[in-house]
Structures are given as C-alpha cells and as structure tokens.
Amino acid sequence: MAGPPRGFRARVVSSRPLTPTIHAIEVEKPKAFTFGPTQFTFLQLQTEEGMDARPMSLATSPTRPHLEYAVRLSDSAYKRAFAALQPDDEVRVFGPIGDFVLHETRPAVLLAGGIGITPFKGMAEYAADKALSIPIRLVYSNRSEDEIVYRRELETLETQNARFRVLHTLTRTTDDGWRGKTGRIDQELLHEATRDLADPIYYVSGTPSMVVGMLQLLRSLDVPDASIEVEAFRGYG
Fold it and tell me: Residue 233's CB: how many other CB atoms inside 10 A?
C-alpha cells in the first residue's frame, strides 16, 4: 500500500491571468521532486476560510524549471485565494499523483476542452524538450477565441516540434474573423487529427460532461478502451 503523497512548501514565482476567466501561477520546484508528464498534485492554499487543498494538474513538463498550475476562476474562497497569490507567497504541494501520463512510444491524440489543456501543455513541452519521435495531435475545444488557454505557448511548441500539431475548434464563437473549425469535437475533426497515425493512444481531458461525450464518440468509432486515457476536471467551488 502506498502512503499519502509527500508534501513540500513552495514559493510562488509568478501569478498572471491567461484569459478573461483563467489564472495561472508558477511555483518553485524542489530538485528532489520528480513527476511524469503530466501527473497532478494537491495544491494547498491559505484562504479566508482556512487552509484548503484541491487536486490540480501540473501544467508544465518535468523538464521545465518551475511547476505551473492554471484554474478557471469562480467566486469560491479557494479560487479567490488562488487568483490573489503574488510572487514570494507560499503554497504547499502534495504529490505527484495519478497515471495520466504520456506514453513515449505510441502516437498521441490529445482531446481537450477549456481548462483541460493543462496536462496536455506539459505533455507537449515534454515531447519537444525530449525530441520524442512520436506524432502528437492536439484537438482543442473552447467557447470563444479569447478563451483559448496557452495559445501562444502551443504555437511556439508547434514551431519547435514538427511532429506536434494543434487543431482548434470554437463552440460559441460569433467572431466573423475566426477562420478555424466551429462546433464540438466530432467524427470529422477526429478523422483529420488521426490521419496517417498508426494505433494512437487517445487522451481525454476536460469537464466530466466533455469526457463522457468524447468516450461516446471514440467508442462509436470502435476505439478500444485500452487505447483511451481519461482525466476529468470536476468542478469545485
């Protein structure tokens, strides 16, 4: 039986908004802390209601110097405390936890909705930094263009890694200037993403409803469960 995840104190290095509704922080990474691309941890903060810890995916690769987290903001005590963090503030990290980790020898199809992008950003960074030979396709669904999280970082990773490609789709856009796909991730978009890929693993990350929808879509295409990895972001206050 594994014991409880080990914990450590960490100093906040940066705190910044990513979109109108998403906020990110970077914290120091102890030299002894190792994790797979990319597991999650519990992040403990001091809130107005006391200490509180929530599960949160690591949004960066183990090859990078800091740990990064991003959350969709709400009016909860935890989210308010997260958004208010400043450099030199202290948090506690417990982990790493979980087996939602990139397989390094099979092609990857990453299916993300909104804040579900966080572990995939870390996976894409890892693949670029390690010069992995596997092709990786990220299909990323957001409501509107200004809500695309880590857009610039993903574009940079595409230039760094010729095997990495991002396909965006917007579900609620009214922007006439958007030239990309619209609507939810569907069979047509999935076929485009998987063209020329041999026996890929499908990784799904998003809200429980998004995850259920993707599982139904993949099973309708006869993708075996053994080739599907899932990370559901349960909403919390």
Answer: 23
